[in-house]
Amino acid sequence: MAGNKEGGRKAAAKNLARDPDFYKRIGRIGGQKGTTGGFAANRELAREAGRKGGRISKRRSVSSKIEEEFNNGGTDEPGENTIPVKHTSRIAKLFRKKTANNH
Hints:
The protein is mainly alpha-helical. It has helices at 5-18, 22-33, 38-41, 43-55, 62-71, 88-102.
């Protein structure tokens, strides 16, 4: 068993000298022994986990940032409060929505 990086390199070289497919073989064995299945086996479980993670996420969506900036009037100075050009169609959509509600 290797105790440091150099020993690990020597052990890896020795394993590959004995059996060129050593790591392929032990990886296959480990994969076959797995019993959990993971998200690939259960699509509904993945969907549920994503829903839970998204619900508790502290990150705000781009839409909410744009809407807040639009409602606050925005700024003309470049910086973190300016809206990127790629989101201008969302801004136009918000403007149409806001003006439609005021009529």
